[in-house]
Design a protein that fits this description.
By secondary structure, this protein is mainly alpha-helical. The chain has helices at 27-42, 48-61; strands at residues 12-13, 25-26. The longest helix has 16 residues, at 27-42.
């Protein structure tokens, strides 16, 4: 946990201009939910763990810093 003098940086995805930050989707939450959803589909054909990894890391392949602001 950061010391009280350190600032924590939050990253967001699927943020909507003009909407309050409370309605934006935190990147960490987005990646976790995407991974879980991908795993649930791929479990049916034995590739759930691979899909989980792909879902968790998918942002790396389409990284555009504008999505993180």
């Amino acid at each position: 946990m950061p010391a009280s003098s350190e600032k924590t940086v939050e990253f967001y995805t699927h943020s909507i201009e003009g909407k309050p930050v409370q309605e934006w989707h935190r990147l960490e939450e987005h990646l976790k939910q995407t991974a879980e959803l991908a795993k649930s589909f791929a479990d049916e054909f034995g590739c759930g763990e691979w899909a989980n990894l792909a879902g968790r890391d998918h942002i790396i392949f389409s990284l555009d810093y504008n999505h993180l602001l």
